[in-house]
Amino acid sequence: MAKELTPQEMLRIDLSPPTQDWMDIPVEIKPGIYCYPAKPEKLEIVGMPNAHEWNPLDEDWNLPEGWKETFLEGMRERLDKHRTFKIFMDICVRCGACADKCHFFLGSGDPKNMPVVRGELIRSIYRGEFTKAGKILGRLAGGRKLTEDVLKEIWSYMFQCTECRRCSLFCPYGIDTAEITIIGRELLNLLGLNINWIQEPVANCYETGNHLGLLPHTFVQNIEFLLMDIEEYVGIKIEPSFNRKGAEILFITPSGDVFAEPGIYTLMGYLMIFEHIGLDYTWSTYACEGGNFGFFTSLEMAQRLNAKMYHEAERLGVKWILGGECGHMWRVVHQYMNTFNKPVPTMEEPVSPITGTKFENAKSLKMVHMSEFTADLIKHGKLNLDPSRNDHYKVTFHDSCNPSRGMGMFEEPRYIIKNVCNHFYEMPENTIREQTFCCGSGSGLNAGENMELRLRGGLPRANAAKYVHEKYGVNMLANVCAIDRAVLPASMEYWCPDMQVAGVSELVANALIMEGEGPRTMNLRGEEIPGMAPAEEESEGTEDV
Amino acid sequence: MGIIVSLGAVLAIMVVAWIGGSISGLQPIFGVLVPYAAFAVFLVGFCRKVVDWAKSPVPFRIPTTAGQEVSLPWIKSAKLDNPSTTAGVIGRMFLEVFCFRSLFRNTRADLRSGYLYYSPSKWLWLFAIGFHYAFLIIALRHLRLFVHPIPGFVETLDAVDGMFQIGIPPIYLTDLLFVGAVTALLCRRLFLSKVRFISLPADYFPLFLLLGIGITGLLMRFVFRVDIVSVKQLANGLASLHPTVPDNIGSIFFVHVALVSTLFAYFPFSKLMHMGGVFMSPTRNLANTNRMERHENPWWTPPKFHTYAEYEDMYRDLMKEAGLPLERE
Amino acid sequence: MYDTGKVITGLVIFVGIFTFAFWYTAGTAAPRPEPKLDTPEIQKMAKKQCVEDTQFMITTHMQLLNKLRDQALRDGNRWYVNSKGEKVWISLQNTCLKCHSNKKDFCDKCHNYAGVDPYCWDCHIDPNRSEL
């Protein structure tokens, strides 16, 4: 198990696969790697099929009767629904360009974590069960039959992929393993084979509106706690509105930021920025989840959870939606939401009420990313900033997979960071921007029981962070993703202990000079800011900067 | 196992064609019937495969964005790596198809004393692009045997390709490149542990086939000379739909033709369909305009979700307590 | 989204390119060239036979010519002993072209047909060309 392995032991990774044929290597479901299965009731809440008790370590998974037909029928249906799936089943040439691009392969050396093999797990079924050559020639044509062992193997490796799309970037045909994993997980979900770390948030989100299952009043209370912290550290009293009709903008962010460190500091950042500019906006307790774990079970579930955003925007009569910092939320919002939903006629093309900037890139969906919004504010000089308050941070920026390869948002967060921090250093170029590495725990794999997998998958990112830590003394890993904020602290503690993790908006709020604020001797974490001693004169002196 | 089976299959085709080609009664089969059938299978099979792909819709717009998106007017967007216009998509696709842009990005990762190192790795790109362009030029050059009069561009290609005038007849640069690149691609599969691990018979077979095609071609040109006039008569006959099989064409020619025919016939049912697939891959051929325009999904169904009314019914008391506004008291 | 129009256009282009040889030929095969052997010098010969047998000369004359050129010019040995043991004086213009004095109707016929552009004539001139 991970806890017992030191980083040195964990680093004994052999990236050379054995000479054995991969189809001959039996699947092994290992503690530390696999996630606990979904509880049946969590599947039943959202009406997902074949909910049953099972244990991945058992020989018998209590598979529903006719599971094979269900799986194959599901495959056939998806081949007909997704051109991607059909083409990706047919055209992979196994050139190997993707092989060493996957963080799970680099961190584990498990050759079946090479993206091409992850695809081949399903492609071999496609060939063996759907093509004539595969049916006749079997393994000679690269085909195999769907057996229980094969199903277990697929389950194991579909939940060792974070859908980060790094392999897709390098594929000469753009074969997207995320697409294969998404469909692979859909097929497993037909048999009730989900993991609980995904399914429970889905069930929660479906009813309460957020992954954590925070009830309406708790959601409000949590934010009120953070408002009290702001009052203490900043000396400003903020009174945001909830479920308010007639607000201009609806703000939606991942619920993780309402709940856990260091995401809460990012959320405090949002509150302060909005207060500072006097934004006419509202929170919603109904549509209070930016993230979408439904996306990690099936596209249908993703759509069902996502539908709440527009539904609430329409009910409240807002003009447009502002979205907080989150990775997979923005994959869903940017690439799927506009197709998942019919347009809401009452909404309008987003225009920043502060700067008048039209967000033309969002004119149809009517949803703007917090970093786009903030970068525009800074560009127009609408934020009064003192970057020296972040001087004790040497900052690097971790591009989250989804806003990078499913959207292309690279400059906005960097522009913001450079305006609110004086010390910014990039990690090596093969580990940032479109080539960025996953945190290691995305796509619902941020459970506790699979910590070894998470740490292994987090290695490439942590390694790059360690590099800038050692070279430049970088001590702050900034990001725009709630899962990053939830999981990178653990990864950093293991691989690069002196690295802290923060959302970009936290850094903005640290630097933000608010009207009527008290002496800013503490940052949003309630820590003393070095060089900003409590003495009155000194703090006033710095405010003149 | 895959290696031996694939090599064996290619050798078997060669032996059969050698024997068949040396029996004059069978020559019409190997010289006319087989090539026609193979080419028909190729054309029909290719189109059917593409049509089959096209029957499945592209329900979502999911380009892999490899550069800055279009957002604020003062931020420069990556027009080719993250296109937002049709022209940008055409540019991106041009780079993919003609320059193997994604493959050019390739890096290799090494773990040395606790650090991961990434270095550019262009070998695969080099072998791949070398092979593909060599193959393209060789195919175009072969038109001199199929059509008459010979188009100017074919003569030009021929002259440029043989411009070093080494040997008699002059050796074509693309022939060397072709055999060299295919050999290199084969060696990757044989000797690099990762690539060997993922290789199937379906990966070795086309490489052996291509190598066989290249070698028999070279042999015909330099060692077992065949009467090029008879070869052209046969090829031109095929193209004009008046096939004839002249006497005295060496058996090696029929081996070459059999291998090419196999390639054609095998094509639509294999990974070689990446030729069509690269154009149709939705992660590359879609503009990143997701928030600018709505992308329709033909199988869209309205989502069954927990509506606000249901939510309020479920939590009305709690909401009331928290002072949240309600639709119905 | 199906993009039917684009897919069909793509397929039409694909088929168009791959069947280029068919429609360019338009059903007419070029007649097989018959190089003429009726020059006065050949007609004088009792046994109409080149320096090697005909099939060999058809397929391999370029390699033989190349070999003989090297032998004559680089080694200075202008006698070629053929497979029957006969000695032949090596000279393109005075031996080869003495019989085959009809470049247009002999050499060029096949070369043009097969799209071959030998570099013989970079150095040599056709002694029988009409401009002379």
| Rg of chain C, Cα atoms, Å | 22 Å
Mean pLDDT of chain B: 95
User: Helical proportion of chain C?
Assistant: 40-55%
Gyration radius of chain B (Cα, Å) is 28 Å
Kindly state the number of beta strands of chain C: 2
What is the H/E order of chain B? HHHHEEHHHHHHHHHH
CATH structural fold name of chain B: Fumarate Reductase Cytochrome B subunit
SS-derived structural category of chain C: mainly alpha
Low-confidence stretches of chain C: none
Look at the structure and name the CATH superfamily of chain B: Transmembrane di-heme cytochromes, Chain C
Can you put this structure into words, describing what you see?
The complex is a heterotrimer of chains A (545), B (329) and C (132). Chain A is 46% helix and 4% strand. With 545 residues, chain A is mainly alpha-helical. Chain A folds into 3 domains: 2-30 and 49-193, no CATH class; 208-379, no CATH class; 387-543, no CATH class. In chain A, α20 (451-472) packs across α21. Chain B has a two-stranded antiparallel ribbon with strand order 1-2. In chain B, α1 (2-22) runs parallel beside α10 (201-222), α1 (2-22) packs across α12 (251-266) and α5 (123-141) packs across α8 (173-191). The longest helix of chain B is centred in the first third of the chain and has 29 residues, at 27-55. Chain C is mostly helical. Chain C has a domain at 33-123. Chain C has helices at residues 4-18, 20-25, 40-44, 54-74, 92-99, 107-114, 120-123, and strands at residues 79-81, 87-89. In chain C, a hairpin with a 5-residue loop joins β1 and β2. The termini of chain C are far apart. Classes of the chains: A mainly alpha (545), B mainly alpha (329), C mainly alpha (132). Chains in contact: A-B, B-C.
Describe the structure concisely for a colleague.
With 545 residues, chain A is mostly helical.
Helices and strands, with pairings:
The complex is a heterotrimer of chains A (545), B (329) and C (132).
Chain A: H1 7-10, H2 40-45, H3 67-81, H4 83-91, H5 103-108, H6 115-130, H7 132-137, H8 148-158, H9 166-170, H10 177-190, H11 196-208, H12 216-234, E1 249-252, H13 256-259, H14 263-277, E2 281-282, H15 299-316, E3 320-323, H16 327-340, E4 367-369, H17 370-379, E5 395-397, H18 401-405, H19 411-420, H20 451-472, E6 476-479, H21 482-495, E7 500-503, H22 504-511, H23 536-543
Parallel strand pairs in A: 1-2, 1-3, 3-4, 5-6, 6-7
Chain B: H1 2-22, H2 27-55, H3 86-99, H4 101-104, E1 107-112, E2 115-120, H5 123-141, H6 143-146, H7 152-161, H8 173-191, H9 193-198, H10 201-222, H11 228-239, H12 251-266, H13 274-280, H14 308-321
Antiparallel strand pairs in B: 1-2
Helix pairs in contact in B: 1-2, 1-10, 1-12, 2-12, 5-8, 8-10, 10-12
Chain C: H1 4-18, H2 20-25, H3 40-44, H4 54-74, E1 79-81, E2 87-89, H5 92-99, H6 107-114, H7 120-123
Antiparallel strand pairs in C: 1-2
